Fold:
Amino acid sequence: MAGRIPSDFIDSLMARVDIVDIIDRRVPLTRKGKEYQACCPFHEEKTPSFTVSPSKQFYHCFGCGAHGTAVGFLMDYANLSFVEAVEELAEGVGMPVPREESGPAPPPGESPGQLLGIVEEASHWFQQQLRRHPDAGKAIDYLKGRGLDGQTCAAFGVGFAPDGWDGLTSALGGNDTRRTQLLKAGLLSRKEGDGGAAPRLYDRFRGRIIFPIEDHRGRVVAFGGRILGDGEPKYLNSPETPLFHKGAELYGLHRARRAIGQAGRSLVVEGYMDVISLAQFGVDNAVATLGTATTRTHLQRLFRLAPEIVFCFDGDRAGRDAAWKAMQVAMAEMQDGRQLGFLFLPQGEDPDTIVRGEGPDAFQQRVAEALPLDRFLFDTLSAQVDMSRMDGKARLVSLARPLIESMPESALRQLMRDRLSSLTGVRGESIGPADAGPRPGRRANRGAASTGQLSLMATAISLLLQHPKAASGLARPELIEEMRLQGGDHLRRVYKRAVANPDITTARLVEGFRDSDVYEYIERLASHDHQVQDGSVARVLDDTLARLEDLQNEERRAMLLEKSRAQPLAADEKDELRSLLDRKRNRLEAR
Structure:
């Protein structure tokens, strides 16, 4: 099947698109000097701190720390995947997106576009059955019994799967290719034949109310079905398919996007009926997971739309367990400016019954009064220990500390440490360091300040990323080629691309690292504020490289001296050590 998008195409695309035009279509920009400004679309502010640099083809917000290229902007602003963002940019400049072949082409009828087509056909068929099938009365009675009106059901595309083995198969599976598409899309199931007989295909959804599941772009990719009458499972979702990954999609997200942004919060509930019933009463910012626990992908998509997420679950043991699992996953995403809330409903109630019984205003008040993250975490853990005992307080520290330390470094994490210290009497330095720094495998806080001190290597890389033209005017470019310190390979990669492409932008340099494990590190360096005037960049860069050379020489000297104490050095090593010692002596005398 078609593979990844070639890196040289990404580079060509970044050379063609204009980030100012891309962002201005979505967030009106005002020119200020050499750059453009706007109020940041990623956090609430009254004074513009969001800047777009046409020369760097890079954006940065000095308020929340958001930054990136045109690709990154579309991913964050429009909630697109990397591939979707590239496709949208390419379409805008008339460039077809090539793919590297990573295997055989898909069989006829099995491309994503064709699968989307037949899933859409199936959605229309289910909706037609709700209106026309002789047995649809029981489905309509069920929906009316749940208080749903026809307009709301139509808006969500609710349908009906008749209680037969081959209704959908007969209607849409007219040939082998079509039946293969239906099977790949999770709409049919296969029963192996007995005694060597051919396998039999039959409808996956039978005797159920059907809820189309849209992806974040509004395309129907799967279905959920609620059984009518007795039977198991009560709810049945499509299986994982080339179109549908339940850990990535949220029911109702596409329809709720605008309302989430306007409300400043998203509401995560447990099922389709909760989302639909709330929408009928004007609560349009609700979504639901799809038969799986909350994932980081779910949270990242929701946080791109609004800074607050409220989980609304039943108040029973299962609901609280689900909330706790969601909180554990969310800790790694809790940057400053983000909020989590937990709303637990009375026994036997759900959002559907509450909004009907109390009205939307009372329900919204419940949401506004949801337990904040700190209360939910500490109340839950405190109930598991005896806080009147010293060892109980110590136990609370051992339970809470791993959760707190899984958060990105931020003011919020420090406040959580302080709260734990207040509850237990354990001093803050015993709970966790004031600044532990980024940890391997954990996404750094994009909202962190971008003016802190960088290492010498990071400074050199950052200056070259932001001022690639400086690469051609270095006093001693050989220092980069000879650099063996950690990060030297990244420095050489940036330098070589900058020298080979005199007109290259910051955005193109950054996107060149997209597939590497240091992409986020490089992206942050591209947004770092050095507070260096453009005319001084070459001097600062040359000075930084000279200091890196000294550091490298010092490490090499120390290594050779240490080796000489254990065994005799080879002749060339002795010469090298003598040269390094002479160089250090001369530099000290020059001072």
